[in-house]
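[Meeting: bench + compute handoff]

Bench side (C.D.) handed over the final construct sequence. Compute side (W.E.) agreed to return the predicted structure before the next meeting so the bench team could plan truncations. Sequence as handed over:
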Amino acid sequence: ACSWCINVHLRVRAVPCDVFCRSVTMPPKKVVEEERLGPWALGKFSSRLKVGIVGLPNVGKSTLYNTLTKCSIPAENFPFCTIEPNETRVNVPDERFDWLVEKHQPKSIVHPWLEICDIAGLVKGAAQGAGLGNAFLSHIRAVDGIVHVMRAFEDPDIVHVEDRVDPVDDIEIISNELRQKDLEAIERKLADLNRDKTRMNSNPANKKEWEAEFATVNKVKEWLEAGKEVRLGVGCGDADAWSTKDIQYINEYQLLTSKPVIYLVNLSEDDYKRKKNKWLKPIHDWVKAHGGAAILPFSGELEAKLQDMSGGDGTESDPVKMEANADIVRAEYLKENGMVSALPKIVVTSFKMVHLQYFFTAGPDEVRGWVVRKGFTAPQGAGVIHTDFEQGFICAEVMAFADLKEHGTELEVKAKGRYRQEGKTYILQDGDVIFYKFNVTTPKKTLMGGKTSK
């Protein structure tokens, strides 16, 4: 008799076990489906992420960086005018933040920001060291997302390293170099695992971990050899190539092709104005065939011209007023020509590409946007403000920005029942307006041998 029937037979002795078992249908076990992972699962789970501007030489990377950051780094007409990467922070434009500032008129304003890195141009053969390629590829490894700039404008005065203008071929060159470098890294990792096989197999727990990592490395190696990029193995198509365990290892390796990408197409001002260029469709077709990603046309020529514009007659000495006058001149030029600057959209898209978001703290003293990675819990968000806030977290008083804007004040939000308290498991949402409650107690001091110890 089965163990279950033995227990029942203590009470129902008249029914044979085989008859009883056939007459009872056990309920099926509940199947718990694992949540499907998305692109957000790849990469560092941190709020301090940065994006790198990548492309061939002389496609407009440094021009874009200068206009985004209002800096003046060299953007000369020769390859490798940038060698060491330039980094800076740029404010992320957001109408919600502007509304909070207008409402509270605070003493201090701190915008949400994104760190951007200008990386020197890669060339064909960079994975083998051509054109200082090994150094430049290491700079790409240090960033968390890639802004891929392509040249789609003709200008005989600006040389192209391949002596032609073909942005689709440019994408192929960069993608191949990144994939080749990843393949080299994976092959080195596979050699390390083979070398450690005997030592790791001496312990059952180590053996199991070794086998799991060995399987992942071989899977990634086959994927790269097939000409596919690692980031396309999750969140694309009907099924994912990478399991949760695979992603744990992949994130440790910091592979270049695991990083999210957006594509910027650098057009002439005329093409940007008329919204036409012969390369836009071929670029769209290529990107779609390779997993898809955001494609943003922009004009480095236009953005540089806007940056150089000044307002007034030159007699104004106040830099704030000078910039305000220049903004008026820029707005008039764009309106007259039926154009808009692409820079705000580039910054916002780059910010979202690396799965960042922010919550607000707002009051008469300060309005601030705190940058966090998607998936951060309320205590982790508190830790971005200060580590003591996370350690002594009590609760987060939260209201959605949309509710605050609709009802006008915090009191009205409370009156409508839209103000809530959230605990440790709450996942922060983009645009939350939060007041944290916390309690940090000082550790008691005890006397030990005449010395105090915490």
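W.E. noted at the follow-up: The mean pLDDT is 84. C.D. will use this when planning the next construct.
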